[in-house]
DNA sequence: TGAGGAAGGACCC
DNA sequence: CCCCAGGGTCCTTCCAAG
């Protein structure tokens, strides 16, 4: 094979972008050449084509650059890299967890299937859902013509003149989605929907319980159209309709669809998944496919394997996994798209086995995140725990239209978009600080222009005020020429939580990966042993060492086990007790839950402890920054805060002194300040409270002093009034006090200095615990790890609190 | 040195 | 005859202030 992508003609190159992408199900054995010819024919000369050409060249340049880099790599460099890769591989290998049963479910040709179900005439003709300009999905009939999702309708029509294109009906899909999610929830209440038709489920717990289920619980009636409450209006023809035939040779899903008959399922994974799919079909008349594997990435690939209406299980053994992976084309892996594929191809990599063969090289040519990702793929590793979907990060609306060049029209369109966006924002009660304008000109060149405000906005007026400016400058920028637009969009991001102050940003927690649920994509560390004690040292880059290696043994394990105990108890007991009938952002059918932040006292709507911790994180950092803001109205002494605070306090309950009980107490709110410091294991928690206090107080105090003069400062740690009005001096004192605590902690002592716990306020402890433990550990780690290249704990720095700990270590 | 914004892209469905 | 969506997330690179 030619290893060098450069040198071929434009035509050939372009083909990789434009050509039919037939790596999906239902597209085997097509006349690719003919199809590609038609596609090219239809595209040639268009502005779109021109732009694709341009993008293609950019990719080629990237590849060239990469090849050039490759040429510079010396043998020893490669060997060094190889050593690194091997070391990392063995560590990853150690962390391999095959104990989980992850299932990825995916509805077959979802939108199209729904439409076919509801309109029998469509059943036997090639059809697609979408518009002339873009198709969302096509039925399997249409796929035989090469018609597939993400293909413009007009081209599809050329491939298949008889194609029926039906406009999407999202409300209907959403309704069906709700139905299937109800079923999902029965197998995993924490399932994660990826879209309307797709979800990841962790079957592990279900299977465990299932073993002891009586047969009756595993028996399901056929065609039980009866009266499930969620049974929507799919009455087109009640009794008669069977599942749409997606494929002529589609396996008959369930024997005996005579009404009233029953189907019984076993206790194995496969039976359970089959049962789930059966129930989906009974309920919706639509079929689903599923993949069963020990982690998410594999499950996803597996769900594609026997599509449509099939399932595939990858046995949870290393051998099976590795065998499966070897033959797998890299492109099949979620996250590797056209471009990555092409780049990898240029290096002679097409399958995952190629991937592992070339890891050393890849580690030198790609970014850390990238090659770590590659490495994991090549080992068949990925998240074994399904992350809770987090709160959204942005919201946008955009619209494509035929050329729009008049500034007035552009402005008014922009206004419309802002109106729409504001409306959507309102539904979720969100406010954001960053407004982004997106424009695409008639040549398909996309630009985004963003502006971040010092405050959050949500109304159409406010958003438009920003978007308008951005648009105007773009118009002016083009000066004499008009802006010839084909698309405009407005996005808002950098949300603040409902109290209007707290940025929701990433936190230490996620960095440390202490969450029960992993972050599949973003983080290189995605594995967690059942006991969760250590996760190896995957965070390391060249020079940094692992947490485990760096943490003093005792503290390390103490922190970890405590955090884990807390976390587990919390997520299982406390979380449940906080259920609140508020609509969840996801709408995935799981109940929304709310926590009260001990810092800002805002209600945080989430089911994920990580998310909540993140909130606290950002709250703390926000508090530190808040004083900069001109609007003096929002001080920590805000009466409203006090009000909320008291609400929290009243929620607290007396807790037994025993740590375990405390941690797992279902009531939730602990009065940390009153916990006796004598109990060894609790020192951490005491520290925690102090830390939070320390962080919080000075802010308030500083604010105070800047506004007026009230020099009487009381140390929140030792509780003694400090005879100074110099904040620097005061802070220094607090530092010292604080450091004593930490010192004791590090010294392995069980109680700190003997001073009474300084804190009077109650906090909803459990929720803070893991957070602060992390805080401690991270600052700590950063200091120990004195390699210059070690990334300092960015988050810790921003917490304002790190100073104190930092000083201690200096 | 480095948090964070801005801009551009890759990818997913 | 009609000439390629819209809603997201994450990552990388550049930049500028202190």
Automatic annotation (TrEMBL):
Subcellular location: Nucleus
Coiled-coil segments: 56-98
Claim: Cell division is one of the keywords in the record: no
UBZ4-type domain ranges (all copies): 594-624
Regions of compositional bias (Basic and acidic residues) in chain numbering: 641-661
UmuC domain residues: 102-337
Cofactor(s) the record lists: Mg(2+); Mn(2+)
This protein's GO CC annotations: nucleus
A Pfam family this chain is assigned to: IMS_HHH
Keywords per UniProt: Coiled coil, DNA damage, DNA repair, DNA replication, DNA synthesis, DNA-binding, DNA-directed DNA polymerase, Magnesium, Metal-binding, Mutator protein, Nucleotidyltransferase, Nucleus, Repeat, Schiff base, Transferase, Zinc, Zinc-finger
UniProt keyword Membrane, yes or no: no
Alphabetical list of InterPro entries matching this protein: DNA/RNA_pol_sf (IPR043502), DNA_pol_Y-fam_lit_finger_sf (IPR036775), DNA_pol_Y-fam_little_finger (IPR017961), DNA_polymerase-Y (IPR050116), DNApol_IV (IPR022880), PolY_HhH_motif (IPR024728), Rad18_UBZ4 (IPR006642), Rev_trsase/Diguanyl_cyclase (IPR043128)
GO terms for MF: damaged DNA binding; DNA-directed DNA polymerase activity; zinc ion binding
Chemical reaction(s) catalysed: DNA(n) + a 2'-deoxyribonucleoside 5'-triphosphate = DNA(n+1) + diphosphate
PROSITE patterns, per the entry: UMUC, ZF_UBZ4
GO BP annotation list: DNA repair; DNA replication; error-prone translesion synthesis
Main location: nucleus
Function: DNA polymerase specifically involved in DNA repair. Plays an important role in translesion synthesis, where the normal high-fidelity DNA polymerases cannot proceed and DNA synthesis stalls. Depending on the context, it inserts the correct base, but causes frequent base transitions, transversions and frameshifts. Lacks 3'-5' proofreading exonuclease activity. Forms a Schiff base with 5'-deoxyribose phosphate at abasic sites, but does not have lyase activity.
Protein name from the UniProt record: DNA polymerase kappa
Organism the protein comes from: Poecilia formosa
């Amino acid at each position: 094979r030619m290893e060098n992508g450069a040198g071929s003609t434009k035509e050939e190159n372009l083909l990789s972008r434009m050509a039919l992408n037939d790596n999906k199900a239902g597209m085997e054995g097509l006349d690719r050449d003919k199809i590609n010819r038609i596609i090219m024919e239809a595209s040639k000369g268009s502005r779109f084509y021109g732009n694709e050409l341009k993008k293609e060249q950019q990719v080629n340049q990237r590849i060239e650059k990469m090849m050039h880099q490759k040429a510079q790599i010396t043998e020893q460099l490669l060997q060094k890299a190889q050593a690194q890769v091997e070391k990392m591989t063995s560590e990853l290998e150690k962390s391999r967890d095959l104990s989980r049963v992850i299932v990825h479910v995916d509805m077959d040709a979802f939108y199209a299937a729904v439409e076919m179900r509801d309109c029998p005439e469509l059943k036997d003709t090639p059809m697609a859902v979408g518009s002339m300009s873009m198709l969302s999905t096509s039925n399997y009939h249409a796929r035989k013509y090469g018609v597939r999702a993400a293909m413009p309708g007009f081209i599809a029509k050329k491939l298949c003149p008889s194609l029926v294109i039906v406009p999407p009906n999202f409300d209907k899909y959403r309704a069906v989605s709700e139905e299937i999610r109800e079923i999902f929830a029965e197998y995993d209440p924490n399932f994660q929907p990826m879209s309307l038709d797709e979800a990841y489920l962790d079957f592990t717990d279900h299977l465990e319980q299932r073993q002891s289920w009586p047969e009756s619980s595993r028996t399901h009636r056929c065609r039980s159209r009866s009266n499930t409450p969620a049974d929507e209006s799919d009455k087109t023809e009640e009794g008669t309709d069977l599942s749409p035939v997606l494929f002529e040779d589609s396996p008959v899903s369930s024997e005996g669809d005579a009404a009233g008959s029953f189907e019984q399922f076993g206790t194995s994974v496969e039976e359970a998944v089959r049962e789930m799919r059966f129930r989906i079909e009974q309920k919706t008349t639509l079929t689903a496919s599923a993949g069963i594997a020990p982690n998410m990435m594999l499950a996803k690939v597996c769900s594609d394997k026997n599509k449509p209406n099939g399932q595939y299980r990858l046995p949870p053994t290393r051998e099976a996994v590795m065998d499966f992976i070897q033959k797998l084309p890299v492109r099949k892996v979620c996250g590797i798209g056209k471009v990555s594929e092409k780049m990898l191809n240029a290096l002679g990599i097409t399958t995952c086995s190629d991937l592992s063969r070339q890891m050393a090289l890849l580690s030198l040519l790609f970014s850390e995140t990238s090659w770590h990702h590659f490495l994991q793929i090549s080992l068949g590793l990925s998240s074994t725990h399904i992350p809770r979907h987090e709160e959204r990060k942005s919201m946008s609306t955009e619209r494509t239209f035929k050329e729009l060049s008049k500034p007035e029209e552009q402005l008014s369109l922009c206004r419309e978009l802002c109106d729409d966006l504001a409306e959507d924002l309102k539904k979720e009660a969100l406010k954001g600080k960053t407004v982004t304008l997106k424009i695409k000109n008639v040549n398909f060149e996309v630009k985004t222009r963003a502006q971040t405000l010092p405050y959050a906005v949500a109304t159409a007026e406010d958003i438009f005020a920003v978007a308008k400016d951005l648009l105007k400058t773009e118009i002016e920028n083009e000066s004499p020429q008009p802006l010839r637009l084909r698309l405009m969009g407005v996005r808002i991001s950098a949300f603040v939580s409902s109290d209007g102050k707290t940025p929701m940003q990433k936190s230490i927690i996620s960095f440390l990966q202490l969450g029960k649920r992993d972050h599949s994509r973003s983080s290189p560390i995605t594995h967690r042993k059942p006991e969760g004690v250590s996760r190896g040292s995957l965070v390391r880059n060249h020079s940094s060492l692992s947490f485990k290696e760096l943490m003093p043994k005792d503290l390390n394990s103490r922190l970890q086990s405590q955090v884990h105990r807390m976390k587990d108890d919390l997520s299982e007991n406390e979380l449940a007790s906080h259920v609140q009938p508020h609509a969840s952002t996801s709408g995935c059918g799981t109940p929304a839950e709310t926590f009260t932040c001990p810092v800002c006292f805002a209600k945080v709507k989430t089911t994920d402890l990580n998310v909540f911790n993140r909130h606290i994180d950002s709250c703390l950092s926000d508090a530190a920054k808040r004083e900069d803001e001109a609007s003096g109205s929002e001080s920590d002494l805000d009466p409203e805060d006090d009000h909320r605070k008291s609400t929290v306090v009243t929620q607290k309950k007396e807790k037994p002194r025993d740590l375990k009980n405390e941690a797992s107490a279902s009531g939730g709110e602990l009065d940390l300040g009153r916990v006796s410091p004598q109990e060894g294991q609790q020192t951490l928690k005491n520290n925690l409270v102090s830390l939070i206090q320390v962080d919080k107080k000075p802010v308030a105090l500083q604010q105070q002093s800047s506004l007026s003069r009230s020099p009487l400062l009381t140390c929140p740690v030792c509780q003694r009034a400090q005879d100074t009005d110099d904040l620097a001096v005061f802070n220094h004192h607090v530092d010292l006090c604080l450091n004593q605590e930490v010192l004791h902690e590090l010294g392995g002592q069980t109680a700190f200095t003997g001073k009474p716990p300084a804190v009077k306020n109650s906090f909803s402890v459990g929720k803070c615990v893991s957070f602060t433990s992390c805080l401690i550990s991270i600052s700590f780690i950063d200091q120990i790890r004195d390699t210059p290249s070690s990334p300092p704990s960015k988050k810790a720095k921003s917490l304002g609190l790190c100073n104190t700990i930092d000083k201690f270590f200096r």
